[in-house]
């Protein structure tokens, strides 16, 4: 039985796997509201994630993620929620909504980001992506954890955005509306 708590769809996965992109496509198709946890944190703090990491460190950022998770559980319903790459570790993830893990290999993610015209800028914004060897090790450690947290797993490598959202909509039986 799927966890339909709050009727939110919570997208988890590694940096650059496509959480933001898939979220926006789902928002368009379902006409639901959408929020992104990294964006919520940046607006709450009025500064970029890189600045938060540089000035106050990762532990402080993780506290902000926990605070955001509590707020989402209490206040957000029927939404598409995209998350930062490490957000899946918050204690109450299950209580926020149905957890969808967007899965790809690490090389698949790097290939995608390289194809993206603003790839360098995108990588520079993500402190944990700056050292490729460390990022690969983090990916390896996390892969099993993402899978354990997921209500459903959607493979995204070498698939179109349209095919990916079609599968999510079908599996979660989300209502869609004409554009
Ligand atoms: N299925 C897809 N097909 C083609 N390109 C894609 C697909 N999914 C994502 N992309 C592209 O990959 C890049 C990374 O996607 P996106 O920014 O959505 O990732 P993210 O998981 O939100 O990253 P982060 O958590 O670091 O912000 C973007 O340039 C996006 O256009
Ligand atoms: O994977 C991670 O731990 C992170 C991913 C980004 O989305 C940001 O949330 C931040 O850079 C940390």
From TrEMBL:
Q: Is Membrane among this UniProt entry's keywords?
A: no
**Cited InterPro entries:** P-loop_NTPase, Shikimate/glucono_kinase, Shikimate_kinase/TSH1
Enzyme Commission numbers on file:
2.7.1.71
Q: Which GO terms describe its cellular component?
A: cytosol
Kindly state what the record says about how the cofactor is bound.
Answer: Binds 1 Mg(2+) ion per subunit.
- GO MF annotation, one: magnesium ion binding
Which UniProt keywords are given for this protein, alphabetically ordered? Amino-acid biosynthesis, Aromatic amino acid biosynthesis, ATP-binding, Cytoplasm, Kinase, Magnesium, Metal-binding, Nucleotide-binding, Transferase
Cellular compartments annotated: Cytoplasm
Q: Which residues bind ATP?
A: 16-21, 126, 159
Reactions that this protein is recorded to catalyse: shikimate + ATP = 3-phosphoshikimate + ADP + H(+)
Could you say which cofactors this protein requires?
Mg(2+)
Cite the annotated pathway. Metabolic intermediate biosynthesis; chorismate biosynthesis; chorismate from D-erythrose 4-phosphate and phosphoenolpyruvate: step 5/7
Q: Per the UniProt entry, what are the Gene Ontology biological process annotations, in alphabetical order? A: amino acid biosynthetic process; aromatic amino acid family biosynthetic process; chorismate biosynthetic process
Sequence positions that bind substrate: 38, 62, 85, 142
Record flagged with keyword Mitochondrion: no
Chain's role? Catalyzes the specific phosphorylation of the 3-hydroxyl group of shikimic acid using ATP as a cosubstrate.
Record's subunit section:
Monomer.
Q: Which family does the record claim for this protein?
A: Belongs to the shikimate kinase family.
Q: What is the recorded name of this protein?
A: Shikimate kinase
Q: Gene encoding this polypeptide? A: aroK
């Amino acid at each position: 039985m799927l966890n339909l708590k709050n009727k939110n769809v919570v997208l988890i996965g590694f940096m650059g796997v496509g959480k933001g992109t898939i979220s926006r496509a789902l928002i368009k198709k379902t006409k639901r509201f959408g929020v992104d946890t990294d964006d919520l944190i940046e607006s709450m703090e009025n500064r970029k994630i890189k600045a938060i990491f540089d000035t106050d460190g990762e532990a402080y950022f993780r506290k902000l993620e926990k605070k955001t998770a509590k707020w989402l559980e209490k206040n957000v319903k029927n939404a598409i929620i995209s998350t930062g790459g490490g957000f899946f570790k918050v204690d109450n993830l299950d209580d926020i909504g149905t957890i969808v893990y967007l899965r790809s290999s690490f090389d698949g993610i790097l290939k995608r980001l390289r194809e993206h015209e603003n790839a360098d800028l995108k990588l520079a914004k993500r402190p944990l992506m700056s050292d490729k060897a460390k990022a690969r090790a983090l990916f390896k450690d996390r892969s099993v954890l993402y899978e354990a947290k997921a209500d459903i797993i959607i493979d995204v490598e070498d698939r179109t955005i349209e095919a990916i959202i079609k599968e999510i909509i079908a599996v979660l039986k989300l209502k869609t509306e004409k554009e």
